[in-house]
């Protein structure tokens, strides 16, 4: 066993040193808020903690009708899901001109991956591995939302998940905490600005990191389900992106629906106070998720009154929809279960957020109708969205160099996802204007013009099961279910396919087949689509599978039969154009997977940073008795984390280290030479993984600790260098000390998580 003599840091101390800024360090803000609170009644303070829903967009089960009289009475601190600068301006006018103290409201919305200009779903966006692009997408989303009255977004969602059955993997950044942490920071910088420069302009809005915490670890991949894991796994694998968000200065945090150690997150004082505030130094405010307080009663830890008091005492500041705080705080003050100090602290945090946003200085800061007309969904933003979407797509297979396609001849575009506009933006695109989004079919025709003849047939419905299709096409995302028989649809598709030189099959999930409350126990391509694909392959024509999906799918059969597969996720409002750009070679794909694709659902959870067992299966083996394996499938992924092809090829030199010895205060450099060995320019994501060979607690077989995305011309070579210091080697040990232990470390650098290109060094 290693002796832990190097850089041992207790959990709380490490977090306090590393995270966030000081709580309420702005003396001017402190004085303003204190003066205001001295004038507020108890009812007005409680009102600041109340966040009802309003408007045309509803995200949860409940609906709340908000009247002007409640706003005038100071019973509401903010509203969410109201769209439009003119509408928001009028409600804000009531708050600041007709209430006693004129306290402005904060207006929030689920601006998840764009506003009206929609970018790829977050899982797709993460596959770009481009932090500048991620930040730019959030900056544009903030610019559009802020012009239309929104000052607060319930994003980024940074939950780590290793179970693709969970529908909300579409809203996150995949399975890896290191990459997830970098994306969390980039998103917050895009929304709020960089630390020290946050909220300096009217185009910056407040971010809300969610869902705190561990929501992606839900048992069985079923949404809202129980989460149960060790503290060691929490802090090593799931907590880093939330902590990174705090370090980036995120203004608010949302409690998750799940329980942690038997206590729902919304009422979990250890989570919301001990960790988030005391250990990490978070100085923003905590909001519940939709009806999160009232749902604790269903969890079985108390009456609505009891759980409402428990939530406030745990560290919740704002109650989304439940109105438990509004209803029960007074009673808690009377019976002593709630202190006035706790109420004041929550109220102060909400007022500070409004102060930071500049709402007290100009309540109408985010309500410029003329600006909205110029900024929202403009040509400049759409061009950026098209570019970023094209770099998020992952080329999974390209047998014989089938792609890119030539711009000539006849193409048959076939499949239930080929001629739908509403599904292209993907799930959680609540502000998207579907009538302005282009179908894949129309976008392809428009992009190719008269160079290529594009034929179309639907080929099949989304699925044979009518009820399943209805559940999978909610919120206006209908696919227009065709009432013809499966045989008739297939016959039409084959007739079209026979007239074409190449077939593009647009298959997979509908946009609402993933997302919140869209867990799936079977994550394969739906039945009738499989039959359609088999029939298209049987024509003997070359077939390109364009995969639409909000999660990794089990496509082992398809991967064995289809010569080319391009995963486009749901690429946002510009999906049609971006996909055409990649398919026909105007853009060389450079996306890399941020979540492992399993071969079948029985392998789940399957992720690259697993640990060795005492009976590990040998490399390349399938079944060996008395080893950790399956009888019916090997242990390997279909497509591993970090994987993605290009229209060119890259070679890597052996890993070079500046030294094979490293001290506690030292650093070493790891480098490789990467060469574009193909005929076209291309981007490569160079990935560095590290393995701690022997630990006082078992360590993963490798962990991502660095990445760089580079552009290389044909024949060009570039040296890519990574700096390794002791911080990259730390982890939480059995006693929850944050340590870097001496001993051997292996460094792997390559194009995906399976690279064998390695070198070793020792930490002394």
What would a concise description of this structure say?
The protein is α/β, with parallel strands linked by helices. The longest helix has 17 residues, at 131-147.
How is this structure best described in words?
- This protein has 764 residues and is of the alpha/beta class.
- It is 31% helix and 17% strand.
- The strands form 8 sheets. The protein has a 6-stranded mixed beta sheet, sandwiched between helices. It has a 5-stranded mixed beta sheet with strand order 20-28-27-22-23. Strands 18, 19, 21 and 24 form a 4-stranded antiparallel beta sheet that branches.
- Helix 5 links the parallel strand 3 and strand 4.
- The longest helix has 17 residues.
- The protein is globular and about 75 Å long.
- The N terminus is likely disordered.
Helix and strand arrangement:
Elements: E1 8-10, H1 11-18, H2 27-39, H3 42-48, E2 50-51, H4 68-72, E3 78-80, H5 85-98, E4 106-109, H6 122-126, H7 131-147, E5 152-153, H8 177-192, E6 208-212, H9 231-238, H10 240-247, E7 252-255, E8 259-260, E9 263-264, H11 269-279, E10 285-287, H12 292-299, H13 304-314, E11 319-320, H14 324-335, H15 340-356, H16 369-375, H17 379-392, E12 394-398, E13 410-414, H18 440-448, E14 453-457, H19 466-471, H20 486-498, E15 502-508, H21 527-538, E16 543-548, H22 556-561, E17 564-567, H23 575-583, E18 650-652, E19 656-657, E20 661-662, E21 668-676, E22 682-692, E23 703-712, E24 717-724, E25 731-732, E26 737-739, E27 743-750, E28 758-763
Parallel strand pairs: 2-11, 3-4, 4-5, 6-7, 7-10, 13-14, 13-15, 15-16, 16-17, 20-28
Antiparallel strand pairs: 1-26, 8-9, 12-17, 18-21, 19-21, 21-24, 22-23, 22-27, 25-26, 27-28
Helix pairs in contact: 2-15, 3-14, 7-8, 7-16, 7-17, 8-10, 11-13, 12-13, 13-14, 17-23, 18-23, 20-21
